[in-house]
Amino acid sequence: MSWVVILALAGGTYALRLAGPVLRDRLSVSETVKRYLTLAAVALLAALIGTAALLDGTEFVGIARPAGVVVGAVLAWRRAPFVVVVVAAALTAALLRLAGVR
Q1: What is the pLDDT of residue 4?
Q2: HEC secondary structure over 13-43
Q3: Cβ count within 10 A of residue 85
Q4: Measured between alpha carbons, how far is 62 from 66 in angstroms, rounded to an integer?
Q5: Could you list the pLDDT tens digit for every one of the 102 residues in the chain?
Q6: In Å, how far are 58, 87, 88 from 92, measured between CA atoms?
Q7: Residue 92 in contact with residue 71, Cβ under 8 Å?
Q8: What is the C-alpha separation between 24 and 48, in angstroms, rounded?
Q9: Using N-to-C axis directions, what is the helix angle for 64-77 and 31-54, rounded to 10°?
Q10: Which of 32, 42, 56, 66 has its CA 20 to 30 A from that of 48?
Q11: Do 53 and 65 meet the contact criterion of CB atoms below 8 Å apart?
Q12: Residue 43 · residue 49 · CB < 8 Å
């Protein structure tokens, strides 16, 4: 059963990836639709970041993880190297948890 599901998902993935180059010249989208698709992608990404940073399942995670996300976001905004952003965010959350802040 699981091999059938894996093969079906692989086929679907291949079909979706093939649809882009095949349909590129056949479909035309207005500038308004392109703008809304871009805004929808940004909104979806923001929602994913928000739920991952603030919730664990249905419970609030506390202050340590969001504080780490804020530190990482500020450093990324200031164009710090990626390694510095990740290490500083993780270190912030770890030190707050070590200090007893949930």
Answers
A1: 94
A2: HHHHHHHHHHHCCCCCCCHHHHHHHHHHHHH
A3: 19
A4: 8
A5: 799 999 999 999 999 999 989 988 888 889 999 999 999 999 999 999 999 999 998 999 999 999 999 999 999 999 999 999 999 999 999 999 999 998
A6: 23, 8, 6
A7: yes
A8: 28
A9: 140
A10: 32
A11: yes
A12: no
**Phi and psi dihedrals of 99, rounded to 5?**
-80, -5
Q: What whole-number distance in Å separates Cα of residue 102 and Cα of residue 94? A: 10
Total count of residues recorded for the chain: 102
pTM: 0.65
Would you state the pLDDT for residue 1? 72
